[in-house]
Each structure stands twice: as structure tokens, then as C-alpha cells.
Recover the amino acids of this structure.
């Protein structure tokens, strides 16, 4: 299969989108290194998990997470297309 088969002329390489998704993942990791705070009220030793005492814009989080989901859905679709093409 030829390199760049799935790209069209003038199509961007997705670096901006990838950088944005990386930043979202990093932001969540920095806020919740053990992936517990957004799922549970207490950690494994029973201590209450405290989040920063700031306003949280839930609508913005929803839009950002939908964009991240779209990014990963697109990446999954592209990988499936590559795998399917390789079978021929």
C-alpha cells in the first residue's frame, strides 16, 4: 500500500487536532492522576476526594469531550479502513 493513501491533496495532517486531544488528556491527568476523582467520592483508603474549589463549565466540558470522542472515532474508522485495505 502506498504511503499517504488515505490523504487527499491539501488535507492538513491533523497536528492541531492531535495536540488539542493530547492537551485535554494531560489536563485530566494533571487534575486526577489516579483516575478516581471524577468517578468516586472517596479514594481506596476511604479519604474524601477533593476537587479544586473553582467553577466548572459543564457545557464546555461536554463540548470538549464530544470533540475528543469524534477524534477517536475518526481515528478508529481510519485504522479500520487501513486494516480492511491491507486484507486485499
Amino acid at each position: 500500500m502506498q504511503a499517504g493513501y488515505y490523504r487527499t491533496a491539501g488535507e492538513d495532517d491533523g497536528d492541531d487536532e492531535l495536540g488539542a486531544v493530547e492537551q485535554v488528556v494531560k489536563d485530566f491527568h494533571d487534575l486526577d492522576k489516579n483516575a478516581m476523582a471524577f468517578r468516586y467520592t472517596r479514594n481506596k483508603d476511604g479519604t474524601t476526594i477533593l476537587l479544586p474549589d473553582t467553577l466548572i463549565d459543564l457545557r464546555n466540558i461536554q463540548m470538549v469531550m464530544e470533540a475528543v470522542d469524534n477524534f477517536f472515532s475518526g481515528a478508529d474508522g481510519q485504522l479500520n479502513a487501513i486494516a480492511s485495505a491491507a486484507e486485499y
About this structure: The chain has one domain: 15-86.
